[in-house]
Amino acid sequence: QVQLVESGGGLVQAGGSLRLSCAASGRSFSSYRMGWFRQAPGKEREFVASVTGSGGIGGYAGSVKGRFTISRDNNKNTVYLQMNSLQPTDTAVYYCAARSPTANNYNYWGQGTQVTVAS
Description:
The protein is mostly beta strands. Helices cover 0% and strands 52% of the residues. It has no helices and eleven strands. It has strands spanning 3-7, 10-13, 18-25, 33-39, 46-51, 57-60, 68-73, 78-83, 92-99, 108-109, 113-118. Strands 2, 4, 5, 6, 9, 10 and 11 form a seven-stranded mixed β-sheet that branches. Strands 1-3-8-7 form a four-stranded antiparallel β-sheet, with no helix packed on it.
C-alpha cells in the first residue's frame, strides 16, 4: 500500500515557475514507476510526465516537453515536478500517481494540488 501526498501548488503569473512535490509512504518506493497527471476544468485527466523507479525518464507529454522536469529522490520517497514557463493552459489539478511493479496501470493516486496560472 502506498499513500501519496502532493504539495507545492498555487497561483503563479504566466511565465513563472512552480515545483510540485509528492511524498510517498509505504515500502519499496524505488520499485514504483511514478507519474504526474493533470485535470483541467471540464477536461479529462491527462498524462504529464513519468519517471522509472531508478530515476530514468519515462516520458513527457508534448505540451510540457522542454518546460517541465520530473525527478525523484528515493532516499526521501519523493517525486518532483519542476514547472517552468507556465502558461494559463497549464492551469489544472495536478495528481501524483504510483504504479506498482506488477500493475499494468497506475494504481495509487494522491489527492491532487491546484495549479493556477494567471495571464
